[in-house]
Specification:
This protein is an alpha+beta fold and 133 residues long. It has two domains: 1-44, no CATH class; 48-133, no CATH class. It is built from four helices and four strands, in the order ββββαααα. It has helices spanning 51-62, 68-74, 82-89, 126-132; strands at residues 7-14, 17-24, 26-30, 33-38. It has a two-stranded antiparallel ribbon. 16% of the residues are buried. The mean pLDDT is 83.
Length: 133
């Protein structure tokens, strides 16, 4: 039986007004040994909903090395607009570009341009993956 008594994991407020509350469950395992569980016994794939949790881990680490734009795309999804792509490419050195292995994608909006081929930079999460590298 699955216990899905999820709890608030992140409660983001802007000027005291609730903006985003992420409910979920967290568990820490090493191999098959459970060390801690919080929020129920639920198996799920976090995908983009994990970004509020991931931001706590990487934001402070990135601050000394990246400007605002690069930090912003490292913790958020993007549309592959030129300003987003510039910010992402500042995260990695040119010699590290080949390490980015996000799925090949096209920009969400092509702004009147027909893109000829998909690229890893265009993936909505490429900034986060570049920052992790």
């Amino acid at each position: 039986m699955i216990d899905n008594s999820w709890v608030p994991l992140v409660d983001y407020r802007r000027n005291g007004v609730p903006e985003v509350t992420v409910h979920g469950a967290v568990a820490w395992f090493k191999g098959k040994k459970l060390y801690h569980s919080y929020g129920g016994n639920v198996l799920c794939y976090g995908r983009s909903m994990m970004k509020p949790v991931q931001i706590k881990v990487i934001a402070k680490e990135l601050e000394p090395y990246l400007g605002w734009a690069s930090r912003a795309v490292s913790i958020a999804s993007h549309n592959a607009e030129p300003i987003h792509l510039e910010a992402i490419k500042e995260i990695l050195k040119p010699s590290e570009y080949g390490l980015l292995q996000t799925p090949l994608s096209l920009p969400l909006q092509q702004f009147g341009k027909q893109m000829r081929r998909p690229r890893r930079w265009y993936h909505t999460c490429s900034g986060k993956h570049a920052a992790i590298l």
